[in-house]
């Protein structure tokens, strides 16, 4: 009986991990890690950085699953060269604090930006609005010849857009921010982007 329970729990974990990775945007990192050398070069991050960031995300997700199935699904994670952004909605303050502790205690993490909300506005309507906003912004910056779109990670929670990544210069970052602000339904845009020549990258 115990063996059956363990197997079911393990199966549930992997199903939830796959769902969480895809919905949380980690899919981009995984696809990039498996892409051609040409695509990897198009990013400011090296292929090694992409692999390390993916490992960080999976490790944090694994620990969140041990904390709570609900927190595991509600918290989204982005990582860029070890700088981790946490977003989402949780019901309890202690879950927000614990998620931050977990991120800080994960190997390879240099910084943690905790933007998790302690409230429950994550209904289906808001969820699909957020997806549409994120996808529209990704499409807009992909079309801009002056923006290196692969260098940016985008997450939208409750119509607040979070942007993380590496900008070639301030002009490029301004273009990205303007595109985000001009999308219908966006309430606020928060940037966690650093410049290509930022000291923190060394």
Number of strands: 6
State Rg: 17 Å
Structural class: alpha/beta
Beta-strand portion reads 15-25%
Instruction: Please list the strands of the largest sheet in the order they lie side by side.
Output: 1-2-3
Short synopsis of the structure:
This protein is an alpha/beta fold and about 200 residues long.
Would you give an account of this structure?
The protein is an alpha/beta fold and about 200 residues long. The protein has one domain. It is built from eight helices and six strands; from the N terminus they run H-H-H-H-H-E-E-H-E-H-E-E-H-E. The strands form two sheets. The protein has a three-stranded mixed sheet with strand order 1-2-3. A hairpin with a 2-residue loop joins strand 4 and strand 5. Helix 4 runs antiparallel to helix 6 and helix 7 packs across helix 8. The longest helix has 23 residues. The protein starts with a helix and ends in a 7-residue tail after the last strand.
């Amino acid at each position: 009986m115990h063996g059956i329970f363990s197997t079911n729990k393990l199966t549930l974990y992997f199903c939830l991990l796959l769902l969480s990775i895809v919905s949380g945007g980690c899919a981009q990192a995984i696809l990039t890690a498996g892409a051609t050398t040409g695509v990897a070069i198009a990013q400011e991050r090296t292929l090694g950085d992409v692999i390390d960031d993916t490992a960080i995300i999976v490790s944090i997700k694994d620990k969140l699953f041990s904390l709570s199935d609900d927190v595991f699904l509600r918290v989204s994670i982005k990582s860029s060269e070890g700088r981790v952004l946490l977003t989402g909605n949780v019901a309890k303050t202690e879950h927000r604090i614990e998620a931050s502790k977990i991120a800080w205690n994960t190997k390879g993490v240099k910084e943690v930006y905790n933007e998790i909300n302690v409230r429950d506005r994550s209904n289906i309507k808001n969820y699909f609005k957020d997806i549409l906003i994120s996808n529209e912004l990704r499409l807009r910056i992909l079309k801009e010849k002056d923006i290196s779109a692969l260098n940016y990670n985008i997450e939208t929670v409750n119509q607040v857009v979070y942007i993380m990544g590496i900008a070639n210069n301030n002009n490029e970052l301004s273009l990205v921010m303007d595109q985000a602000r001009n999308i219908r339904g966006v309430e606020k845009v928060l940037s966690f982007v650093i410049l290509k020549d930022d000291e923190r990258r060394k």
